[in-house]
Amino acid sequence: EVIVKAIEKIVAENQTTFVEVEKNVIGAIFGEVGKEMRNSIIDGMGVNIGIDPSDSKINLRGTVEKITEAAKVLEEFIADNFTSEFDVSPDDEALLFHGGSDSLLNRIEADHDVKANFRKQRHVLAIRGREENVNTAVEAVSKFFNGGDGFGVEKLKVPEGVLGIVIGKGGSNISKLEKDYEGINIHVHRNSNYLSIRGPVEKVNECRVDIITLMATSRVTELVPLSPGQHEILAQPDIMKKITNDINVNVTLSDASLKIRGVSTDVADTKAILMEHLTGEYEASIILEPSQFSKVSAAVRDPSHFERIRKATNASIRMDSTESAIIISGKRSSVKKAKTFLTGVLDFLLPSQFAKVKVPKPLVKSMNDPAAIAKISADSGSTVSFDRDLHCFQVQSSKPESVFQATEMLKARLSECEKLVVVVRLDASDLWLLPKIIGKGGETVKELQEESGCKFDISKEELLVAISGESEDAVSTAKASLDKIIEQARKECVFVNIPDSAMSAFIGKGGTNIRQLAEDHDVDIERLRKEPSCIRIQGDEASVEGAHVAVIAWLNDWEASHVGKTVELEEAFIPAILGKQGSTVSTIQRATRCKIDIDRRGLTLTVRGGDESNREEALNKVNEIIDEEKKKILEREAEILENKKKKNVLNESTEAPDSDSNGHSQPEFASRPVGLTIGE
Predict the structure, then answer these.
(1) How far apart are CA 616 and CA 622, in angstroms?
(2) pLDDT tens digits for 58-110?
(3) Residue 655 above 60 pLDDT?
(4) Contact 128, 34 (CB under 8 A)
(5) Which of 191, 233, 329, 550 sits most deeply, having the most CB atoms within 10 A of its CB?
(6) How confident is the model at residue 157, as a pLDDT?
(7) Cβ–Cβ < 8 Å for 137, 86
(8) What is the rounded CA–CA span in Å between residue 601 and residue 622?
(9) What is the pLDDT of residue 5?
């Protein structure tokens, strides 16, 4: 009986119950905050308290009466200490404490009757109190950091050299902006050079326009120290001209340094090209918004993804969290290739948040006006920057509608600039026209500029002439003058294609025929080295015309005695028909005993010699090659289409909801990183 009573007592004193609890409240229960409550339960009621292994329950052990009483105390504590956490960007942490007694932390606690504690290691703000109070406090914090309900928040990345100008002496510019735009608060994040603007949405947008314009148009100075050896390199003729080509900066070279002055973007571009000349390494960056940077960082967490692009381009790539940027370095050509791959990846990872607007080289100067681009950026709410390496404007924003608006504005500006800039593009075969346009010692182009008042930019690399002026009429008149020069040049220089099988007869033994023809018409006739089946006739207009007629007459007579069958030919198939060093076409000629002439300028193929069946056989073999090439093209197009479909499927996977039907947290990206096959 004694044993039974002892057992009954043990059982009575070890009854259990539990109270469900959110995981984020457990710290308060067993921490300093819950000390008094725990003592009242443990010491005052004799009830043991512990955590269930699931971290979702608090277990209580004691008599039924006491654990029931303890459960009520615990439930009341939990109700008074409901906890919610708010993620705070490292850049924004200082804002929690800014203002001393009137800081955001203190205002949140006072206004909503809650306790707020910033947990630095996890970058979260924990807010504790009654649930309804905590929820309204979290809404207020979210509104402060992210905006909403008429309250605007904008973040701007400020270039290092412009930061002092934006702030002003003793903060004078910031103070002026806060005074001019009532209700605005501006905070500079010193560690990252980000600047945040908070206040009424309309005032925030107006203030943003002013700051962006100031950043884009302010001229800054950067001093680059030089060693004696580096100074010697830069002192060489035309080196500085090559470095600053097409960039609107002023440079001053001294014995120990180089001073670069201009708007910040131009200064940065010039410095990058300068360092390439001095060190052999070119460095460029793609700056992202913080939210975009986080998304890209998560997607490329596996270093092998960037390694693919590194192997394909020989460029170094790294993520810089301080600058919120992707840094690319190496030879300039390698950096350009890597940028091309990376912009493709960004376009994939940030659908509708990243766009490019290509700008023809002749329009770069007129398009890239700092004030005009700053206005587009400010009005659209996007970041707009010009990439000299890729000759395009890059537009980015976490808001797709802002990207679309900026892109449309850039296209509209491009259309306006095109009205004041005419680009005359030449075919590769017309390269000979450029010296005619330039003239001896540049006399012809200089005369064109003086007469029209327009500027002529000639690019031998791109085979184009760009004419820019202050009015459409002036540009139109200059274009007409250029057309006249080109038309006259074409009358004084004519090219004629001579079939390979006719070339020996045309030239004659020891060149007698071609020399006689040239003498008879007082012209120069020569066979082109790069196009062996083509001759050039040069001289005055009348003489060239007479010689041209004579050559065509000779050619007609030759073709009349050399029966052939001619078909049109697409340029893309010519390499396959010729084969390596002409091996394929030679094989066909030997097999069919025919001669095959390809006119690259006229895009025709003629089969001569043999009988009708031989010529048909040769053409059939050529058509077989063309059919095989067409098949390969279709296969490549099908492969590209299939890759696009796969890309779209992966893209959709990145837009999955943040939680499933059971409320479980889902990863922001698909389990397989996306957008990373682009570099293959």
Answers:
(1) 10
(2) 999 999 999 999 999 999 999 999 989 999 888 788 889 888 888 999 999 99
(3) no
(4) no
(5) 329
(6) 84
(7) no
(8) 19
(9) 86
- Rounded-to-integer distance, Cα 425 and Cα 419, Å: 16
Phi and psi at residue 19, in whole multiples of 5°? -125, 125
| Residue 364 identity | V
In the three-class reduction of DSSP (H, G, I as helix; E, B as strand; rest coil), residue 109 is classed as: helix
| Cβ-contact 214, 165 below 8 angstroms | yes
Confidence grade of residue 649 (pLDDT, cut at 50, 70, 90):
low
Contact between 360 and 390 under an 8 Å Cβ cutoff? The reply is no
User: Residues 632-661, buried b or exposed e (16+ Cβ, 10 A)?
Assistant: eeeeeeeeeeeeeeeeeebeeebeeeeeee
Task: List the helix and strand counts (H, then E) for the chain.
Answer: 29, 27
What is each CA distance from 5 to 1, 13, 61, in whole angstroms?
6, 12, 19
- Whole-angstrom Cα distance, residue 310 to residue 308? 5
pLDDT tens readout for residues 449-496: 999 999 888 888 778 888 888 888 999 999 999 999 999 999 999 999
Instruction: Tell me how far apart the 2 most distant CA atoms of the chain are, in Å.
Output: 144
672 has a pLDDT exceeding 60: no
At residue 554's C-alpha, the angle toward residues 550 and 557, to 5°, is 140
Q: Over 70: is that where the pLDDT of 251 sits? A: yes
501-526: b or e for each residue (b if 16 or more CB lie within 10 Å)?
bbbeebbeeeeebbeebbeebebebe
Backbone angles phi, psi at 420, to 5 degrees: -105, 5
pLDDT tens-digit series, residues 148-190: 989 999 888 888 788 889 999 989 999 999 999 999 999 887 6
Residue 236 DSSP label: S
* Sign of the CA dihedral with 74 first, then 77, 82, and 83 last: negative
Give me the residue label for tokens 């830069």.
234
What the block records as the tokens of 228 is: 């004696």
Mean pLDDT of all residues in the chain?
87
- CB 348 within 8 Å of CB 680: no
- Pairing of β 82-87 and β 124-129: antiparallel
- 289 vs 396: CA distance, rounded Å: 8
Question: SS3 of 208, please?
Answer: helix
Rounded Cα distance between 137 and 105, Å, is: 10
**620-646 residue pLDDT tens:** 999 999 999 999 989 888 888 887 776
- By the 10 Å C-beta count (0-12 exposed, 13-18 middle, 19+ buried), 440 is classed as exposed
